[in-house]
Design goal:
Helices cover 27% and strands 9% of the residues. The chain is of the alpha/beta class and 141 residues long.
Length: 141
């Protein structure tokens, strides 16, 4: 997009531009367990209650698994990349931070998860302005 609009963008001074990161749908799973079954038959797998994977193909990886929610090592890496390499002026955080383990969530657990993820994001992006909003998964019916 930049090369297509280079002439438009070059009319602005660099200090007039704002670098923004948009993040959404973190679905942070504090109970993610590498090696756990990624196809356990529950609403959310790759967790301590999923059982260990019966095969290598079904094992949750160190950095995460396509079938599962975000783990702490990947979250920490992402926040570090944003803060230290991208160096945005602003982060728009569009919510949906609660994991998909709907069978075991309740009001208290959602509040605790939101407090934890807010602390992690705030500390990981310390010094960067963050504008958050609540996602549809961040509330409890």
């Amino acid at each position: 997009m930049y090369t297509e609009n280079k002439e438009k963008f070059s009319a602005y001074k660099k200090d007039e531009l704002v670098k923004v990161v948009m993040m959404s749908d973190l679905h942070m799973d504090w109970d993610y367990l590498p090696g756990a079954d990624n196809s356990c038959g529950k609403p959310l797998c790759c967790r301590s209650d999923s059982g260990m994977a019966p095969t290598a193909a079904r094992a949750a990886g160190k950095w995460g698994d396509f079938n599962c929610d975000l783990n702490t090592i990947t979250l920490d890496s992402m926040l570090s990349e944003i803060k230290n390499k991208i160096k945005p002026d602003l982060v728009l955080w569009a919510g949906d931070s609660v994991p998909h383990n709907v069978d075991s969530l309740n009001f208290e657990s959602n509040v605790a998860i939101m407090k934890n993820i807010t602390k992690e994001v705030s500390e990981g992006l310390d010094g960067i302005k963050i504008i958050p909003c609540i996602g549809n998964h961040d509330t409890y019916p």
